[in-house]
Amino acid sequence: MLPTIAGTWWAWVILGFALGVLEVLAPGYIFLGFAIGAVLTGVLVGIGLAPGGLAALVLIFAILSVAAWAVLRRVVGVREGQVKIWDRDINDQR
Questions:
Q1: Cβ-contact 31, 65 below 8 angstroms
Q2: Radius of gyration from C-alpha coordinates of the chain
Q3: What is the C-alpha separation between 37 and 78, in angstroms, rounded?
Q4: How far is it, in rounded angstroms, from Cα 93 to Cα 72?
Q5: d(Cα 58, Cα 45) in Å, to the nearest integer?
C-alpha cells in the first residue's frame, strides 16, 4: 500500500462523495462521472486490486471516470428537443 494519502481507500471515496455533492450544486452530469470514478478507484484500492504509485492511481481514476461518463451519456443521453437549432438570425428582416 502507498505511504501517501493517495493510497488510502477512504480518501478516494471521500473525494467521490465530495464530487457528488458538487454535482448536486452544479447539475448537468459534469462531476458525476468523476465522482463514480473516484469511488470505484477507492473500492479497487480498498480490496487491493489497484497498483501502487500515484501515477497509476490517477490513470485508473481517469479511465474509470471516462467509462462512467460514457455509461451515463448512454443511459441519460441528450433528450430530443433539448438542443435548439436556429434557422434564422434574430437580425434578419422578414
A1: no
A2: 19
A3: 21
A4: 42
A5: 12
Residue 1 has pLDDT above 50, yes or no: no
Alpha helices in the chain (DSSP H): 9-25, 32-47, 54-75
| AA identity, residue 51 | P
pLDDT digits (tens, 9 = 90+) for 11-58: 999 999 999 999 999 877 789 999 999 999 999 999 988 887 888 999
What are the C-alpha distances in Å from 55 to residues 3, 52, 70, 75, 82? 14, 9, 23, 30, 38
Q: Which residues contact 33 (CB under 8 A, 6 or more apart)?
A: 65, 66, 68, 69, 72
Q: Where are the domains of the chain?
A: 5-75
User: Hey, which of 71-75, 82-86, 87-91 has the most confident mean pLDDT?
Assistant: 71-75
pTM of this prediction? 0.75
